[in-house]
Amino acid sequence: MDNKITKGISKLLSYILRHSPETINLNLDENGWANVNELIAKFDLYDKRIDFDLLQYIVENNDKKRFAFNEDKSKIRANQGHSIAVELNLNEAEPLAYLYHGTVEKFLSGIKTQGLQKMGRQHVHLSADRETANKVGGRRGKPVILTINSGEMHRAGHKFYLSDNNVWLTDVVPVQFIEF
Ligand code: HQG
């Protein structure tokens, strides 16, 4: 399967399933699930269409496992990253002592005054290793990696969640838990 085509479709799917289902008049339930047949029928963006095989290929091969089917593959959703309000029933989990956040220089002054905020998303996104954080920060320019004292944060009562595709999520990271 052509990588460029699947990457383009995957980006559009992220947009639809995380941010803007109304663009194609798609219904999501309160847990973020879309009906697969409805999605296939309504998906028509920039002359791009999808069928079940392509959708299945993307779910299975997406580099960050961004999407998941339900058991009988009649429904699909994004595993994390939503800006629209959906209840993902995320698994609460105890983090390792340190997690990482990749960002860029221009955001540091804001982060130093307000800590890490969820900005447009439902959670602050953290990575288990520096390499992943480096990629996340690299989307915006030269990456700056912040080390989060997640063990200490957890002991202080902050909740952490681990998404099905292994992204660590939390509501806010107060500045005292960030090593710059
Ligand atoms: C920054 C991608 C100023 C924060 C990635 C980040 C990730 C602040 C940006 C996932 C701030 C928000 C999420 C503050 C945070 N002042 N700037 N107080 N607090 N920021 O995209 O973590 O490919 O919402 O540092 O791989 O970059 O879409 O978050 O730079 O997992 O699956 O505000 O998105 O995954 O940006 O990325 P985002 P993120 P996907």
UniProtKB/TrEMBL annotation:
One of its GO terms (molecular function) is tRNA 2'-phosphotransferase activity. It comes from Pedobacter psychrodurus. NCBIfam families: PRK00819.1-4. Its EC number is 2.7.1.-. This is Probable RNA 2'-phosphotransferase. It holds the Pfam family PTS_2-RNA. Keywords: NAD, Transferase. It comes from the Bacteria. Removes the 2'-phosphate from RNA via an intermediate in which the phosphate is ADP-ribosylated by NAD followed by a presumed transesterification to release the RNA and generate ADP-ribose 1''-2''-cyclic phosphate (APPR>P). May function as an ADP-ribosylase. The lineage of its organism: Bacteria, Pseudomonadati, Bacteroidota, Sphingobacteriia, Sphingobacteriales. Belongs to the KptA/TPT1 family. One of its GO terms (biological process) is tRNA splicing, via endonucleolytic cleavage and ligation. The keyword Metal-binding does not apply.
